[in-house]
Amino acid sequence: MTQDRRLGDALGRLRGLCLALPEVTERLSHGEPTWFIRGKKTFVMFAGRHHDDRVAFWCAAPAQERDALVAQRPEQFFVPPYVGGRGWLGVYLDIAGIDWVELDEMVREAFRTVAPPKLAALLDSP
Question: How many domains does the chain divide into?
Answer without folding.
Answer: 1
